[in-house]
Specification:
heterodimer; A: alpha+beta; Ubiquitin-like (UB roll); 3 domains; 10 helices; B: Flavocytochrome C3, Chain A, domain 1; binds flavin-adenine dinucleotide; binds FE2/S2 (inorganic) cluster
Chain lengths: 221, 546
């Protein structure tokens, strides 16, 4: 067993549990601060120190093993700024980012966001890309962000990097990514009814024949 | 953490055979062999794990025990007196229950069709299975592919039990869904010339799996969620979002039409009455019921609530006796037991090996067959790898991918997987990983028509809560697809229905009937349902439940 501190109270828990399961072992029937339990949803952002150490650490509770001496606190909700916008009325430019989130100009490069990211993203550098209007860079470098909000809680300039990045990715996906011609051709073909007869034929086939058709279909190499 | 010594020995064998295996393909199973292996080893065929339902629309049919308990359970609000005298908390045209991908799609389209929408969800908006999908989404949009080929794959994958009308809609609307998602700003993987990058999934005859790295579901979910939030402020009719307010009961009017719902505020413990002209249930799957004690890939709130709500109100379920076990759940280390290792790893070329480092199954059989083959390798042939907790496992030889597709492929295509293993001391670029089947997907659900409708007027279903699209086995990439196809359709149909529906007085009369039926069936005052959240606090479960 190891000893950890959860929200100021000490508990003994077995070694080897994730922080999330350690909470549960200790008796917390969690409602907040838990979602996917697998590192994808960002619900379980957690801040901790070790007893006697001034340094702060950041983790996803579901993806981090509890260690002896951890003093743990969760951030189940943090108010994050998100202005109203309609993507279809926006231009994919740096001015748009600055228009929606003018506060990003106040970033003074302290790097706290990067240090607090449990996904180990270089948050400060994607925010720098946002400032420069580098939407493609912003979208690419922020892609693995799961929006846990730890950087939001820590940013001394009161910025909300995950929301800025999300807008950047949507602008890139809608306006800047190269178009897939084959996709639009296919959508038109289907609208024109090109495949209707073929599918109807399959629907009309007796089961045995449908099965034969399935077993003998060519598989793309 | 890395691998302990006894596992390393077997790992070395995998490394030794790797070069040779690069040029070897394990043969696919014949139709006959597939059937035999399923019957003998797939969890759906373990008779004791099922029982017959004693009441409700599917009375006399088989369901997994855990689900049967929930379906037959008394209502959560059965002892709340005078609930209907409370003031109505919210009135809307369309109530969407569930903030995953299907719910988001339904909300967007219902709003576009002029409805006022309330989307209420259990945890945060987006805390959902959709957020966790890694591998991809299918659509037949390449020149060598067609909706008809897609149709054939879906039907074959589902054991030809699927509802053909639903499958036709699914495959026909697939390319349009991709285009729609792109127009909302979803970033799919592309070649520099714009062509969508696509690969195989289990049971596909063409490479039609589209991905957004291995965060495909997350990318779709956060885009849809942001769009829903955008419609929340400024738009003509708004979408209101409630979080931490799961629905625990539907409200019906005196003619049996759905007229709203009762939600529970998880923070305050208050019940809230919602009056709605139409309701869309988009509550997702039920992995957290841990059928047969399996660990699961599903999110914390996946407790099958939508099936319980619809069933008690009188809607028929379909294909609830079949669950999907994903062959590659993490089997080691213990901390991530049951979590998903995306099928994309196999799609990119990784093979399966037994304790001797030899292949034993074609890597891209359909999931049911693939899972059964893993179980056979460990149980019957005794060639599995034993992990320290006793959890059986087989090897998934991930490092092959970079040898086949070039260095850097794993890091580029599977960042989430690499990150997850690295967190627990395993280097997936150079080390194979240990896997075993995990409870993944609810193949069936509430029976729907092609517009998401049920036999209850005013009740629509979308997403994993719906049944019939995938028959007895869903193929990878068809679920992210179906939540969009049928989520959009249900949204439109609910909005259209709401336009002509009268607002009637709602009641909870169906609960009185339910209690009567339960008594007649001789049932006790068991644990009520919906379950809402699993309870992992008991010390004995904390170590084993993922
Ligand atoms: C780990 C993982 C990987 C996957 N990978 C793929 C893949 O690569 N490709 C693919 O096609 N499919 C994949 N799937 C399947 C697919 O992601 C899901 O089937 C699909 O996203 C389900 O969407 P949904 O909207 O129906 O349900 P969900 O996304 O689960 O949303 C349901 C929502 O309803 C809420 N809810 C539940 N009960 C209530 C209640 N009583 N009241 C209010 N709200 C409630 C939940 O909290 C949740 O927010 C994967 C699934 C998992 C778990
Ligand atoms: S619970 Fe979803 S990231 Fe931890």
């Amino acid at each position: 067993m190891i000893e950890i501190t959860i929200l100021g109270q000490r508990y003994q828990v077995p070694e080897g549990l994730t922080i999330l399961k350690a909470f549960e072992w200790a008796g917390f029937h969690l409602k907040r601060g838990v979602g996917c339990r697998a590192g994808f949803c960002g619900a379980c952002g957690t801040v901790y120190r070790f007893i006697g150490d001034y340094r702060l650490h950041y983790a996803l509770a579901c993806q981090t093993v509890a260690q002896s001496g951890m003093v743990l606190g969760t951030i189940p909700f943090f108010p994050a700024q998100r202005p109203a916008y309609e993507l279809s009325t926006l231009q994919p430019t740096g001015e748009t980012l600055l228009g929606v989130y003018p506060e990003i100009m106040t970033c003074f490069g302290c790097n706290t966001c990067t240090k607090s990211c449990p996904q180990e993203l270089d948050v400060m550098s994607y925010m720098a890309a946002a400032l420069r209007g580098g939407i493609e860079n912003l979208a690419d470098a922020s892609f693995d962000c799961i929006m846990c909000g730890l950087c939001v809680a820590r940013c001394p300039a009161e910025l909300v990097p995950p929301n800025v990045a999300l807008l950047g990715r949507r602008l890139y996906g809608k306006y800047l990514a190269p178009q897939a011609e084959h996709l639009h051709v296919r959508v038109q073909e289907i609208r024109a009814g090109k495949y209707q007869a073929e599918i109807q034929d399959l629907k009309d086939l007796p089961l045995a024949e449908l099965k034969t058709r399935y077993e003998s279909r060519q598989i793309e190499a | 953490m890395s691998y302990p010594t006894q596992i390393r020995e077997s790992m070395t064998k995998v490394e030794v055979t790797r070069q040779r295996r690069l040029t070897e393909t394990h043969p696919r199973l014949s139709a006959q062999e597939r059937e035999t292996i399923l019957k003998k080893f797939h969890p759906d065929y373990i008779e004791e794990a099922f029982r017959v339902l004693r009441l409700g629309p599917n009375r006399g049919e088989r369901a997994p025990r855990e689900l049967a308990d929930a379906l037959e359970a008394p209502a959560v609000i059965r002892h709340v007196p005078e609930l209907l005298n409370d003031p109505v908390s919210h009135i809307c045209d369309v109530l969407v229950i569930g903030g995953g991908g299907a719910g988001a799609c339904a909300a967007l389209l219902a709003q576009e069709y002029g409805a006022s929408v309330l989307l209420t969800t259990k945890l945060r908006f987006g805390d959902a299975n959709t957020m966790m999908a890694q591998g991809g989404i299918q659509a037949a949009d390449k020149e060598n592919d067609s909706p008809a080929l897609h149709y054939l794959d879906v039907m074959g994958g589902g054991g030809f039990s699927n509802d053909p009308e639903l499958v036709e809609v699914l495959v026909n609307e697939a390319p349009d869904v991709i285009a729609w998602l792109e127009a909302l700003g979803t970033m799919f993987d592309k070649e520099p010339n714009g062509r969508l990058r696509t690969i195989h999934g289990g049971g596909t005859s063409r490479k039609r799996m589209h991905a957004a790295r291995d965060y495909t579901g997350a990318e779709i979910m956060r885009t849809l969620r942001d769009e829903v939030r955008s419609r929340g402020n400024g738009s003509q009719t708004s979408i209101l979002i409630w979080e931490f307010r799961p629905v625990v009961e539907l409200l019906l009017d005196d003619q049996g039409r759905v007229a709203g719902a009762v939600a529970l505020d998880l923070d305050t413990g208050q019940y809230m009455l919602i009056q709605a002209r139409a309701v869309v249930i988009a509550t997702g799957g039920s992995g957290r019921l841990h059928y047969q004690g399996f660990p699961t890939t599903n999110h914390y709130g996946a407790t099958g609530d939508g099936l319980v709500l619809a069933y008690r109100a009188g809607a028929k379920l379909s294909f609830i006796d079949t669950m999907q076990y994903h062959p590659t759940g993490a089997a080691y280390p213990e901390q991530i037991l049951g979590q998903l290792v995306t099928e994309k790893v196999r799609g990119l070329g990784a093979q399966l090996c037994n304790v001797e480092g030899e292949q034993f199954v074609f890597p891209l059989e359909t999931r049911d067959v693939e899972s059964a083959a893993f179980i056979r390798e460990c149980q019957e042939r005794n060639l599995g790898v034993a992990t320290p907790t006793g959890q059986p496992a087989v090897w998934l030889d991930a490092p092959m991918i970079d040898l086949i597709k070039g260095p850097g492929t794993i890091a580029r295509e599977l960042p989430a997987m690499v990150r997850q293993y690295k967190r627990f001391g395993i280097d997936m670029l150079n080390e194979p990983i240990l896997v075993y089947p995990t409870l993944h997907y609810q193949n069936g659900g509430v029976a729907i028509s092609p517009n998401g409708g049920t036999q209850l007027p005013g009740l629509f279903i979308a997403g994993e809560a719906a049944g019939g699209i995938h028959g007895r086995n869903r193929l990878m990439g068809n679920s992210l697809l179906d939540i969009c196809v049928f989520g959009r359709r249900a949204g439109v149909a609910a909005a259209e229905y709401a336009k002509q529906a009268e607002v009637a007085d709602f009641s909870l009369n169906h609960l009185e009937n339910w209690e009567k039926m339960r008594q007649e069936a001789g049932l006790q005052d068991d644990q009520p349902a919906p379950i809402i959240l699993p309870d992992y606090t008991r010390a004995q479960t904390a170590r084993t439940i993922p």
